[in-house]
Fold this sequence. Notes:
The chain is mainly alpha-helical. It has one domain (5-200). It contains seven helices and no strands. It has helices spanning 5-24, 31-54, 64-83, 88-107, 114-140, 148-168, 176-200. The termini are far apart.
Amino acid sequence: MKLTSSDRVLLLFTALLASYQVAVGMDGFSALPIIAYTIGFGVLLIAALLIFILGFDVLDSPVVVIVSTVIPLALSLGLVWQHLASYRTSYLLFTIIGFLAVAWTRSIQMQNKLPVIILAITHGIAGMTIFLLPIILSIQGGMKPLFSLVGVGGALIGIGGLLLSFLKTGKPILSRGTIMRLFPILLLVTTALFVAGFQYG
């Protein structure tokens, strides 16, 4: 499936938004959140540019499942480190173990359901953290109401990650064609929600 002109425009704006957040959107954060958010938005930037240059075929790469796990893990780690100080160490361990587990189960051939289970647990915990934590903080008054946009973006990126992951496992939730049509707009809206939430929340 080839990229359309509108796909390229959407991907270009996604890359510009992600690069803006990496370049100027991290002011006031401590060291680890800056590193985590930079990795998360950096992967979003690289993903958008690779698809823009190479087309949707790049999503067939065997490393896609592993790379798609980096974004929610990195962003959720930054959020936990900033707002849930008592869980910092345990969540840092979870992100490291979760990423290594996904990488390990995707780098060797397995005939059981372990890779899917590991993927679902890792994406599920990271995605729910990005989704719920900003919304709860906004409701409780700990952050401005617009910070909840980060949570909405978290829900969307979780959906996108799972769609790609299950497509790669051969058990797609939607057809490949449908996923490819949705992916550029999903990537742009997700990135825009993240940037808006961090900037105005």
